[in-house]
Structure formats: C-alpha cells, structure tokens
C-alpha cells in the first residue's frame, strides 16, 4: 500500500524541484548556525548562494564520521539543545559514540517515513508488529516503534534478546510482522524449530529486516525457515535511523530511498568523484528536511548503486541496490577485495552447511590468511569424515572460483558460532592491533 500518494509517486521533475527548494533552505540554515559547515564551506570557497541547481551539489564539501567525532557531542547540532527532544547514539567499534539529536518535527518526520516504509513492506494497521530491534541509544527500536504506531498497527516493544520469551509472545500474541536484524531472524527460526514450533503455528507473514548487510541467498533461507516475506530496510543514525530506504513488497528488488527527504549520490570512494546512476560506489546522502542535525553530503561508507528505472509498485523514488557492505568492512586479502556478503552467498548455496559463519583474518609472515568457519548441519556432522572432507573441498573451490583466493575452511559443529541478537559480527581481523 502507498502510504503517502502525494509524495511517493511525484513525477521526477516535481521531486527535483522539491529537493532543490529544500536543499537551499537546509544550506542556508546550516551556514548560519553550524560553525563546522561555515568553516568547511569557506575552505571550499563556496556559499549557499553558489548552489543554483541540483547539479551544483557536488561543489559542496563532504562530511564524514570523523567530523561527528571531532564535534562530539553536540557540535553539529543546528538548533539549541532546548529544541532537541531525543538523543540517540551509535556505539561504533572504537572510541566515542556518534551522537545525533532530533527536534519534535524530526521525530514526526521519522515516524512518518517509518510508517511509509512499513506500508511499502506490506504491513497495515491490522498487523501486530513484534519489534525486536534493540531499544535504547540504538535507533532501531524506537525508530520502528514510532513508525509502527503511526501506521496504526499494534506494536509489541520486545527489544532484542530473551529468545524464549520472544517465541512465547510471538505465538500467544499473534505477531504478524517481525522487525529485527536478518541474523536474529535466523536465530529465532532456529530456536522455534528446536522448540517444536512450526511457522504454520504462527501468524508471522512479513519480516522487516536490516541494520546489517545480508545476501539474497540469506533472504531465501529466512523466507523458507520462517514462512515469511523478508523485506530489506536501510538506514543509519547519522542520517535518520531506520527508514531512509526500504524495498517494496511488490518488487522486493532494490530499496526506495525517500527522495523528498534525502538526496543520494554515488561516489568513487577513492577519488571522491560523483559516478553516474547505475555505477557501484560509496553512497553519499544529504538530508533536506532534518532540523536537529542536518547532514550535507555525508559519506555513509556503504557500497551500492542507484537504480533509476521505474518500479512496478508505482513509487517514483529511485532505488538502491541491496547494500553489499561497507568500505570499512571490506577485507583486502592478498590484494583481493572481499566482502563478507560474497562469502555468505557461496555458503548459503551449499547443501549441508548452515547460514552461521565467521571469517577469521590473520597474517602468516607477510601473507594474509582467511579462515572461513561455518557450521554444518547435524546430518553432515554425524556422517563419515569423507563427507566432511568433500564439503570442505567444495566450499574452498567455490570461494576460489568466485573470488580467486584460497582460504582455509573449518567446518564446525552445529550451534558453535555465537548467535547474534542484534548486528552479527562476521569478521575477526587478527591483523589489527
Ligand atoms: O542500523 C539503523 C537501522 C536500524 C537500519 C534498523 C535498519 C533497521 P546504525 O547503527 O547507525 O543504524 O548503522 C548504520 O548499518 O551505515 C550500514 O552499514 C548498516 N546497515 C543498515 N541497514 C542495512 C541494510 C542502523 N539494510 C549502518 N543492509 C549503515 C546493509 C545496512 N547494511
């Protein structure tokens, strides 16, 4: 269902006119209120007046995570703190968290965009939405919560963890939509099957899954194991939280990015040059309605391409191809670029292994080594050694064929790899530190 027909199906010229108007307002506001942007615009010898059309956007300097750290905690806020009604932060792996603030209107916009996203995913006011994204500083929990309420659905604020309780509530309360990370949905599927609960015993019909990269093959596993349609949702705290983009249930092919609120660009991550639609590179987003912490040309480090082709659902907003990973998660193994999601695709297509894996990167002298640890199913595990060896060779060969690198495969017992309740940790890089 289209939640907001007026905006979601705007003709291209109207979207661009609206984007330009909102961009100008945003630029003038940040230039007047945020010292960081005053300085970075001055350094680039540019003022908001120099932006005369959308085509001038690439003249503006980028912003990045380091700028947020340098201005920790509130330096990038464009309004005084008394107008901020909510603060979130993303933990990150090192150092201080990245802090974001929302005005009352920002919370309203976010709720609206999440309601819009839920509707695009096929959820309605009749649904019981089981929200298993973590509540707290992470934007997933409260972001999905407000959107689900705005949609008019019945929200169960589960948060992450306590899988036994999740299952009980899912069954007894008749949860029909689950929101969580893709890796947690697989964990839930496994726990349900262990508890003897079949997906036919549940009302679950849709999963709205995101916050981490996942592959098309992983989607197939989740859809089969839970008997649902699995929809990809994208977002990041710096830009909004969940709800920057989502797949529509009609096509399940690419995530519509809400262009009346965000301007996406794809750049070459090395040169910073803007790439044409259709080419793969780093996603850069400019927010054009946010008040608390507007972001100009923010480098997300997420790798994707923009798909401008019209979509069968009737929405006119461009789509992002499923995100293949982050520039900083990309492993360079003996000079070859490897995304964990590529290895995931191989593993999910091989019979006998489970979609639970971890990559261990290390160094042996001057040589990078990659070990793929993956669980086998009970049947393979109790089979003869020969079967395990054949499987081992098969995985190694398929990875070599796809990526051109030789890696070590370690088949591990079922349930040995730690299950995640939020974002899965796929890589352990022992070369660092
Ligand atoms: O993960 C917001 C979110 C919550 C999105 C719930 C979707 C659902 P952060 O913690 O700031 O915010 O992490 C943002 O997670 O830059 C991507 O690298 C990654 N990410 C988010 N969604 C996807 C996705 C939330 N659908 C970072 N596919 C982003 C791949 C994703 N990666």
What does this structure look like?
This protein has 433 residues and is an alpha/beta fold. It folds into two domains: 1-328, Rossmann fold; 331-429, GMP Synthetase, Chain A, domain 3. It has helices at 5-8, 12-33, 35-43, 65-70, 104-120, 139-151, 163-172, 182-194, 216-226, 340-348, 378-382, 385-403, and strands at residues 84-90, 98-103, 128-131, 154-156, 177-180, 206-210, 229-236, 241-247, 255-257, 262-267, 274-275, 281-287, 298-304, 306-307, 319-320, 325-326, 331-333, 336-338, 353-364, 367-376, 408-412, 427-429. The strands form five sheets. It has a nine-stranded mixed sheet. The protein has a five-stranded antiparallel sheet with strand order 11-10-12-13-16. Strands 21-20-19-22 form a four-stranded mixed sheet. Helix 5 (104-120) crosses helix 6 (139-151), helix 8 (182-194) packs parallel to helix 9 (216-226) and helix 9 packs across helix 10. The N and C termini lie far apart (49 Å). 5'-O-[hydroxy(phenylacetyl)phosphoryl]adenosine (DLL) is lined by residues 90, 133, 138-140, 210-213, 232-237, 241-242, 300, 302, 323, 326.
Q: Do you know the CATH architecture of the largest domain?
A: 3-Layer(aba) Sandwich
- Note the total helix count: 12
What's the CATH H-level homologous superfamily of the largest domain? ANL, N-terminal domain
Q: Kindly report the average pLDDT value.
A: 96
> What share of residues is helical?
25-40%
Which ranges are low-confidence, i.e. pLDDT below 50, for 5 or more consecutive residues? Answer: none
Ligand identities: 5'-O-[hydroxy(phenylacetyl)phosphoryl]adenosine
Number of distinct beta strands: 22
**Structural class determined from secondary elements:** alpha/beta
Q: What name is given to the CATH topology of the largest domain?
A: Rossmann fold
How many independent structural domains? 2
> Which geometry do the CA atoms define?
globular
What can be said about the biggest beta sheet?
9 strands, mixed
Beta-strand portion reads 25-35%
Strand order of the main beta sheet, please? 4-3-5-6-7-8-9-15-14
N- to C-terminal distance: 49 Å
Q: Give the CATH level 1 class of the largest domain.
A: Alpha Beta
């Amino acid at each position: 269902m289209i939640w907001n027909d007026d905006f979601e199906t705007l003709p291209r010229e109207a979207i661009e006119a609206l984007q330009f108007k909102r961009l100008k307002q945003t630029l003038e506001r940040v230039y007047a209120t945020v010292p960081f942007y005053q300085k970075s615009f001055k350094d680039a010898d540019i003022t908001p007046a120099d932006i005369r059309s959308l085509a001038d956007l690439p003249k503006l300097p980028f912003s990045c995570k380091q700028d947020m750290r340098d201005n920790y905690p509130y330096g990038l806020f464009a309004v005084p703190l008394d107008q901020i009604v909510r603060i979130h932060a993303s933990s990150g792996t090192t150092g201080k968290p990245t802090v974001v603030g929302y005005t009352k209107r920002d919370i309203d916009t976010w709720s609206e965009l999440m309601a819009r996203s839920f509707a695009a995913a096929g959820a309605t006011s009749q649904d019981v939405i089981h929200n298993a994204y973590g509540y707290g500083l992470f934007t997933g929990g409260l972001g999905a919560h407000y959107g689900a309420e705005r949609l008019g659905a019945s929200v169960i604020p589960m948060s992450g963890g306590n899988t036994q309780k999740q299952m009980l509530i899912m069954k007894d309360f008749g949860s029909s939509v689950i929101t969580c990370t893709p890796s947690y949905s697989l964990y839930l599927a496994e726990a349900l099957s262990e508890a003897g609960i079949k997906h036919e015993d549940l009302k679950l019909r849709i999963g709205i899954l995101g916050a981490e990269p996942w592959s098309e093959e992983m989607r197939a596993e989740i859809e089969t194991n839970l008997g649902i349609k699995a929809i990809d949702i994208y977002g990041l705290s710096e830009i909004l939280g969940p709800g920057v983009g989502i797949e529509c249930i009609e096509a399940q092919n690419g995530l519509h990015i809400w262009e009346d609120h965000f301007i996406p660009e794809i750049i070459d991550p090395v040169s910073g040059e803007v790439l044409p639609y259709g080419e793969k590179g780093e996603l850069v987003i400019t927010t054009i309605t946010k008040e608390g912490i507007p972001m100009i040309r923010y480098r997300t480090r997420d790798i994707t391409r923009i798909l401008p082709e019209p979509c069968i659902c009737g929405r006119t907003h461009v789509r992002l191809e499923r995100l293949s990973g982050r520039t900083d998660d990309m492993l360079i193994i003996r000079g070859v670029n490897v995304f964990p999601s590529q290895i995931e695709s191989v593993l999910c297509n091989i019979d006998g292994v489970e979609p639970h894996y971890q990559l261990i990167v290390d160094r042996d002298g001057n040589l990078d080594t990659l070990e793929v640890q993956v669980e086998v199913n009970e049947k393979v595990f109790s089979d003869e050694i020969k079967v395990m060896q054949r499987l081992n060779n098969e995985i190694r060969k398929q990875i070599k064929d796809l990526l051109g690198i030789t890696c070590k495969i370690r088949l591990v017992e079922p349930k040995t790899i730690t299950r995640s309740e939020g974002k899965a940790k796929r890589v352990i890089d022992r070369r660092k530190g």
